[in-house]
């Protein structure tokens, strides 16, 4: 199992990338899965650094990555306010550049590239569990064509 | 993430990116990319050596495209790798950031 603890700061993002480079080799993660895991963890950590303020438990993010059988499992723990990415409204693609507001894509990418998502919030922090199988991504991408 | 700018015509430049367009990569090229975008009417972003893109990297491209569009120009993505293209498609930006596969297609798209 690989474990990484990050401070909740932008300067830490390079450590996430280097750690993923090592874990891809150590855990012998196939390229397609490695891409999905990297994308989801980058987006999850980006969101946590961007939106979560420092807490009494410290501005910290813990990440574990390991195989469970044929499934690669990433667990991201933080200690800020709860945020369940499963409850975010369906994504609405932009229709034109002029009115497009860049951003807000991270959760959509996580929901698209992870095979399965669990989330639990408790007194001891928040735990986001992302599972990745050979068939990366969900068959039913939630896109709301009528909105936006 | 590295970036190289090459003029290709009087009103178009090629911006070649190399590496991961992730948080660290975007932070590195944000300022020079914006400078490059402001230097020509049309921008061809050579994505062929970009091995990874995250939402923050797409944000950099979209902001550049919006700037170029305001001046009546176009920003095109040249030959992205399959994984990168899939992320762009997932976000739904390939209609707004058109993808071209070769120089001829790029020049035709600029002149259309």
Order of helices and strands of chain B: EEHEHEHEH
Multimeric organization: heterodimer
Give the strand content of chain B: 25-35%
Radius of gyration of chain A: 16 Å
Reading off the top of the CATH hierarchy, the class of chain B is best stated as Alpha Beta
Which structural class is indicated by helix and strand composition of chain A?
alpha+beta
Superfamily at the CATH H level of chain B? Answer: STAS domain
Give the rounded overall mean pLDDT of chain A.
85
Strands ordered across the widest β-sheet of chain A: 1-2-3-5-4
- Listing every helix as H and every strand as E from the N terminus to the C terminus, the arrangement of chain A reads EHHEEHEE
Read across the widest sheet of chain B, the strand sequence of neighbours is: 1-2-3-4-5
Largest sheet of chain B: 5 strands, mixed
Proportion of residues in β-strands of chain A: 25-35%
Judged by helices, strands and strand pairing, the structural class of chain B is alpha/beta
Tally of separate helices of chain B: 4
Output the CATH topology of chain B.
Transcription Regulator spoIIAA
Rg of chain B, Å, rounded: 12 Å
Calculate the terminal CA-CA distance of chain B, rounded to whole Å: 31 Å
CATH architect. name of chain B: 2-Layer Sandwich
Q: Note the gap between the termini of chain A.
A: 41 Å
